[in-house]
Amino acid sequence: MGYTENDLAKDLENSEYKFGFTTDIESDRAPLGLNEDIIRFISAKKEEPEWLLDYRLKCYKIWSEMTEPSWAHITYPKPNFQGISYYAAPKQTKKYESWDDVDPEMKATMAKLGISLEEQQRLTGVAVDFVMDSVSVATSFKSKLKELGIIFCSFSEAVQEHPELVRQYMGSVVPATDNFYAALNSAVFTDGSFCYIPKGVRCPMELSTYFRINEANTGQFERTLVIADEGSYVSYLEGCTAPQRDENQLHAAVVELIALKDAEIKYSTVQNWYPGDKNGDGGVFNFVTKRGICETNAKISWTQVETGSAVTWKYPSCILKGDNSIGEFYSVAVTNNYQQADTGTKMIHLGKNTKSTIISKGISAGKSHNSYRGLVQIHKNAHHARNFSQCDSLLMTDECGAHTFPYIECKNPSAKIEHEATTSKIGEDQIFYCLQRGISEEKAISLIVNGYCKEVLNQLPMEFAVEAQKLLTISLEGSVG
Amino acid sequence: MLKIKNLHASIDGKEILKGLNLEVNPGEVHAIMGPNGAGKSTLASVLAGREEYEITEGTVDFEGADLLEMATEDRAREGLFLAFQYPVEIPGVSNVNFLRTALNEIREYRGEPAISAKDFMALVKEKSAIVELDAKLASRSVNEGFSGGEKKRNEIFQMAMLDPKLAILDETDSGLDIDALRIVANGVNKLKSDKNATIVITHYQRLLDYIVPDFVHVLYNGQIVKSGPKELALELEEKGYDWIKAEFAH
Ligand SMILES: Nc1ncnc2c1ncn2[C@@H]1O[C@H](COP(=O)(O)OP(=O)(O)OP(=O)(O)O)[C@@H](O)[C@H]1O
Ligand SMILES: [Mg+2]
Which parts form a coiled-coil structure per UniProt (chain B) (predicted)? Predict the structure, then answer.
């Protein structure tokens, strides 16, 4: 495999946040603040149809009437929603037809991120839709996908080219009324990705999008919509890196997955937003709403490796509407220093014989707090529904915290629900054993932690698993105590 | 190779090693025996560099260098190996991945290039044969769910893979069935050369029938109180430790 221990060693040399650099591309940005005019500005910039502007305004109204939620296990300075610019685009608005047309500075940025498109395209067959500050600047493998009738493009492009699909499905899984951040996103989202797999088509490659916050003080509000038509299959990868920042950055994405009859969607995320420095300053606030709906016999798997963000609030969920549908959630969440994470999933069983699996691995280091919050809901018609949940917490120090909140609501007596939970402290005996074999402490921790997360990492496509392993190692450097 | 002089070590304020002396030369096999709680595993841990112990007095010279100044992992990289009395489980980390990481770290330390996957697998095959380790165990997670005897066998397999200068075997014989004892002991013998040395900590003379020691030492109350040829082990087996305890009562 592509990953060697030497790669790891190289990464270890670099203990500061590896991707802490900014790209200097002049941007076209909205004035600070949020009101109806700003929404009109965004919509006009994006040359959107009337219906979408109306939708945004309606959502803005919903949002203005909501209050920001608060949670027991997260504390953070509330974002100032009037101090954010809601739109920024690289000044060059022209689309790139070929790789040669891409701005060299942009290429350099991608190279630093270790995701050279050329390499990725050639070696791994991954089609990358690179979102830099809200506007997609490079899209590849389009023609190949086109042959199969697969649509993989930026959300804005989908609005222009496939308005009927966007109109039908946007907001159908995550309505604007769902929560404060979903409402905000629905009003001000700038771009994101769109994917449609036609009936019976198995997407032959992993579809991948790299997000990156690049403008100081720019809230990021991506919108992702993945539709897998009947009997189709797609594996979708999302990875995030962000440059180092002083002020907190807000990130409030909405991801909607629709798996129609017999379809399968695998959605994998490696999330690495800037977590703040050792004192907890800076860092991204990540408030994301991710949800998928499964029709009959459909399957959705969420796999996530969360290492970044100052504050993470995220519950990728599945609505198991169709009979025999399957929902899976595999998660590794690492928190270090002063990071706070409150993540988990919701599995809503509506159909008969629906099945869900939840494997959550929390790792807390430093003075961080890591909470798992999961809801398994069995509705009264969900005969013979089954759930298995396993929530493990690994503590690296005596000062960090792990909390598990499993909620179960069962309205059908034929359901079978199993829940297992463990909490352990990283063993000094294990580390000593590794050291005695000549393995350095950093590498020992990396081995032990990666071993602990194996069940989740195994769910990721190979290249992604490699990146995830490195991230785990980087984010836990010097953390044992 | 190894010179321990007047070594004092304590843990949580309690002195366990109380002025221990021992010298080991290349090509030699030393057996250390002694009653439970005498400090045998403590000695092994202190030499390997376990941080919980405080060294209050004494020196340890390993191949001309000050062992006590070396970081734990560097001691291993310099060729010190400890076969643990209680090997640790590392879930989710395969034995081969673990060993490849270790081997490459050691090679890097010595300025050698990383071993290729092909050469590594060939080495695994060759060395697992020495202790007749089931190939399935090599690919399983480190010690996870291994039986007591399998863990011990795995320790010697690791020793074979890492090819140390000085190996300390802490009760490697305990938990082994009669056949396994012979296999593991033969494995240790095959790894013996005139350049490396072995310290065997054991309670039973039987192991020493297979791994024949050049010297037998009795560790009692934190000191080596008696040393002799291999016949000393037979005497201990016969008479127990009372006569030694009586001699060194305080
Ligand atoms: N943390 C500790 N605090 C106090 N005493 C300790 C601590 N750890 C170990 N000891 C003591 O140190 C002594 C030596 O232990 P050690 O494990 O070295 O014995 P041993 O000779 O290997 O015995 P055995 O034959 O049973 O393996 C024992 O009396 C043990 O109880
Ligand atoms: Mg012992």
Answer: none
